[in-house]
Design brief:
single chain, 183 residues, alpha/beta, TIM Barrel, eight-stranded parallel β-barrel, 19% strand, globular
Length: 183
């Protein structure tokens, strides 16, 4: 069972030290975290992930890492999240059936393909305007996608306390965010 609120890390957007922020989010009740620190060298990302695992002990949280199947396996993480043009899902699920595998998608077609390939969930994004990202799809398009995908859909991108209800009203499975859970 996947949790409905999915926190994605980005230490550059944190106001507090990284591990303090992780503890704060866990204390708020978030139990699904993705380590997404794409700019870190391999050894630093590995160490940071180990540190997150230590902090998350006792919280019954699921820890997922962005793109790094190798680190997910070495540290026995709960899952790996793949970018739209990342590793193929099917061979990962075949070899590691208990590993949670998610995929970032920007269209219904991508979501349907992810489902066929065995993904456990997808992100659909961006819902609202986010600087440096593709044009937003909006809540109506999100609703269409949610109604046509037979797997959990997390909405991502520009979600805040003013628009979160309109996102939830689409029937989306959950909310994925960096900033939303920090406020």
């Amino acid at each position: 069972m996947l949790h409905r609120f999915y926190f994605i890390t980005d230490r550059k957007k944190f106001k507090k030290p990284f591990l303090d922020t992780i503890k704060e989010v866990l204390d708020k009740g978030i139990r699904l975290l993705q380590i997404r620190e794409k700019d870190l060298p391999d050894n630093e990302l590995f160490k940071l992930t180990e540190d997150v695992l230590k902090i998350a002990e006792g919280y019954d949280a699921k820890i997922i890492i962005n793109s790094r199947l190798d680190i997910a396996l070495l540290l026995n993480l709960d899952g790996v999240h793949l970018p739209e043009n990342g590793l193929p899902i099917e061979p990962i699920k075949k070899k590691f059936p208990n590993l949670i595998v998610g995929k970032s998608c920007h269209s219904l077609e991508c979501g349907l393909q992810a489902y066929q390939d065995g993904a456990d969930y997808v992100f659909i994004s961006p819902i609202f305007q986010v600087e440096g990202k593709a044009p937003p799809i909006g809540v109506e398009k999100l609703r269409e996608i949610v109604n046509k995908l037979p797997l959990p859909v997390y909405a991502l991108g520009g979600i805040n306390k003013f628009n979160v209800q309109s996102v939830l009203d689409t029937g989306v499975y959950g909310i994925a965010s960096i900033r939303y859970f920090l406020d």
